[in-house]
Design a protein that fits this description.
The chain is mainly beta. It has one domain: Ribonuclease Inhibitor (Leucine-rich repeat, LRR (right-handed beta-alpha superhelix), Alpha-Beta Horseshoe), CATH 3.80.10. The chain is built from one helix and ten strands. The strands form three sheets. A six-stranded parallel beta sheet has the order 2-4-6-8-9-10, with no helix packed on it. The termini are far apart.
């Protein structure tokens, strides 16, 4: 399937979109502001960079994702990016050399990042402070 594009005029009332179980490599949905639930699981996506201002649920599990940028998706409550190729988690925007994965998601309550290739996870007092301050509502975190 390759690339999925976007046209905000095509579906102005679209709130749920399920693109799972395809062969999508690149997904661009920057202008579809009405989506509240997006499922792009079981594809071939390598980079997850979306701007979905009303999205509450995002399932991007079982892809080949190595980088995540959801900084404009501030309403996300449930995020599943399990079974991907993520190697590190960053939560602080202060370090300009590192992109953040989860900053600006104040409503996130569920985060599944299990079965990735995480080699660095800083939950020491200093690291946890950034994690805690940006994910205050987080109730469930799966790192298995």
């Amino acid at each position: 399937m390759g690339v999925i594009g976007n046209d905000e005029q095509a579906c102005p009332e679209l709130t749920e979109l399920d693109l799972s179980n395809n062969q999508i490599i690149v997904i661009k949905l920057m202008k579809i502001a009405t989506i509240k639930s997006l499922n792009v699981s079981h594809n071939q996506i390598e980079q997850l960079s979306l701007s979905l201002p009303l999205c509450k649920t995002l399932n991007a599990s079982n892809n080949k994702i190595t980088a995540v940028n959801l900084t404009e998706s501030k309403e996300i409550e449930s995020l599943d990016i399990s079974y991907n190729l993520l190697t590190e988690l960053f939560t602080k925007l202060g370090d300009a050399q590192k992109e953040t994965n989860f900053a600006n998601m104040p409503k996130l309550t569920y985060l599944n990042i299990s079965n990735n290739q995480l080699s660095k996870l800083d939950l020491t007092a200093e690291g946890a402070e950034g994690f805690e301050s940006e994910l205050k509502e987080l109730k469930e975190l799966n790192l298995s």
